[in-house]
Here is the input.
Amino acid sequence: MNHDFERILQAAPSPFVLLDSELRVVWANDAYLQVTDRQLERLIGKVLFEEFPSDPESESGRMLRASFERVFRDGTTDHLPVIPYPIDTADGTTEDRYWSATHTPILSPEGEVEFLLQHTQDVTEAYIAETPGEERTGSAHAAVMRRAHEVTQQNLELDTGISLFKMIFEQAPNFMVTLMGPNHVFRTVNAAYMQLVGQRDLIGKPVREALPEIAGQGFFEMLDEVYRTGEAVSQHGAEAWVRRSAEGPAERVVVDFVFQPLDNVHGETIGIMIQGHDVTAHKLAETRLSEAEERFRTMAHTMPVHVWTATADGRLDWISDQVYAFSGAEPGSLVGDAWPTIIHPDDRAEAIATWAHAVETGTVYATEFRLRRADGAYCWHLVRGAPIRDDQGALMRWVGTNSDIHEQKELSRQLADLNTTLEERVEKRNRELEELHDRLAQSQRVEAVGNLAGGIAHDFNNLLQVMTGSLTMAAREIAADSPARVRIDSAMRAVERGASLSSQLLAFSRRQPLQPRSIDLRDLLRDIDDIMRSALGEGMAVEIDTPEALWPAYADAASTQNAVLNLVINSRDAMEGRGKLKIAVENRHVGPEELFGEPDMVAGDYVEVKIIDHGPGIPAETLAKVFDPFFTTKPVGKGTGLGLSTVYGFARQSGGRVTIASRPGAGTTVTLLLPRAETAEPLQWHDPSEIAGGSETVLLVEDDAEVRDATAALLTDLGYSVRTAENPTAALKSARQAPDFDLVISDVVMPGEFSSREMAETLQAERPDLPILFISGYSRDAIVRDGRVDAGVQFLAKPFTKDALAIKVRDALSSAPVTSTKTETPAQELPDRPRHVLLCEDDALIRLDLADILSGLGTEVTETASGQETLDRLQAGAYDALLIDVGLPDISGEEVATRVRASHPDMPIIFATGQAEVPAAEALGRCAVVQKPFGDRDLERVFARLGILAQAETATAV
Here is the structure.
């Protein structure tokens, strides 16, 4: 049965009005129109509050709006027992009226509230109900109505409080959540929380279902613990990973939160209140700020300039490591107001005042001052500090730098000095050039005389040697008390003076053969002390001053002694044999600035010997000539003029120099500089009682027949068997025809197809253990380089005495290497075939040279370039020895040798290396080491010691 509900409501005596979701009037019955005194056409489509206005904050406005909100929110009917609501009548007057209203929701097919039906009753008369002229007491019905009004007002206040709470809850900047029950079901969630976890359906769902992505992050377990124990938990800076959308990635959030248990009246936990703050942005900002600060500190600590910061009031609060490293100050000791302590005292006051002014005015700080370095030196710095301001222009702090400008300052100062002293320095330079020209002229004079002396020295010394030998042999045949013996002794002294003169000529012209080595000048002075004091006489006092930590000198010992004696005697003559003489020895470092005009010297360490006298001094015109050869101020017959020039030549030839400083009436100081040696070796002098001959066989090579005969006679007299040869070619022929001799004594300068040096090298290639003694009166380029005898060469200068010859021959024989017959394996046990050597060397040129040397030793050679190739060769063939480089590209030589020893326990192994030690050589046994660079004789000795070569092979190898 169908009913027309609109007709039914129209006929109802009670007022009804129908409102849509926007509170617009859709329909009203006649009773409503009558009670409100309105026309239907005027009402339709109007918002209710437009037709019946009220202040939203008034009691009636709040009550009515709250009822409408409950209906649309909850979808349930809402009652207002009594609501005061004024209404305008048709004639424009306003009446205070009281109403009772019921608001019923009309739902759409989808279940949403589509319309609201208001049923209202005017209860004004019943509410007021009072007797005119009497106090308003009202009837029982009126009392009920007033009580209903009071209840409605209380409900309104409660509803207002709830609405306020909901507004606060919903709009709170921090997130708030209410979870109920042990499964933590969402009851309420505010907007801040939805923003945190993303918009999703949470209400009525357990937390594990609503937020599955936070499983395993510890939050579910924390909620369970709070619910179980009833104790609150809070965390700061907790990290969580949530998905803000279904398909989106997990995002990191950082929160501060508290889990607060909710208890019922019995104290039982029924839920948990979650309240907290999303601090992700704050943490990210902190992280970025920390990273920025770290980048700044890293940059500041690694910048080549000093960096510092200060607070707005000018107190330094941070200083980079460079400042502390530069100044040596304790880290942290310069902050605050302590920074001026490392400023130069003369710059400190101005620096502080300038900084104070910059801080006061907020302007850029710019100044220059000197900062103390860790070693105590002060260096100039350019200092700048910039004020840092905020967006409002307020000064926040200072950032400053110190830039090292010391070098620029020094250059500026030097340039200023250059400008102010240019004329003076030009004059000084001219003087230096004049001095250099004088030294060059002197050097050229010495060179010219030296060439002349060198040209005659050879023949002159040969003549002296013939005389020495003949006189020595003649003296043996004449009795000591014979008048002829006196004449022979006189002739011998004349020969010695001639030899001394020849030696002096060669010395000042730097042609004297020197054999420099490391010497301690203190030992040298002690050795000549008696001779020196005897030469000075009783009228002279000598003071010798030497430091404890004296460096060793690198010089020829005998020539150094002669130089010191020469200088001492010169001082004695200047002081006429009476007075005090001082010899001062000290270490001296000579810089490049002190060597202007000294092209033959290099900057470095030297040992300085000063001879200081208190004689009359030397006039300036004489001082410039004292080193010239044959110049002397002594009377005729009292001096040769070669003393100081001899010292000059010796010093130059040794890599040092000699200088003289003197002024009339102030004495003279002669300074001898000799190069420093690494270590000192004790001086060894032969005791005359130890001079002896021997029975060995000597091959004497000398082109001058008279010298040859005289020398042979001296050697024979010493007990030696002597064979002679007139030139190197004849000597080689004699040596090969009759190799049974023990020593070669050879003149240096001889005519013929071969030089004496080539002859010696050929003989020692055949016999590495053969000693060779060179004798010469002038040997400029054969065995002497720049006046120094080549290392390892035995040398005896002509003319020489029998004793000098005896000493040198014994020295040469005793210094010869152990003969190759002393091997670990007897020669007769070696196989009667060429020995086969496996050579491993990765450098092709070195390998080629070594192969030639080994072939020259009479061996067969197989070459390899790597460790693995060597091991492969040893597996495939038989070899008598292994010569291997230590540093190979694939496997080290020591590792290869270790593997070889395992399979070839008796094979000799020779390591070729530039290293100081080869541990495997000692560990493996039957090994030897040859240090690079090495030659054929070094290899031959090692091969002989290891029993690889027989004596016959050693003697015949070329």
User: Anything to note?
Assistant: The radius of gyration is 59 Å.
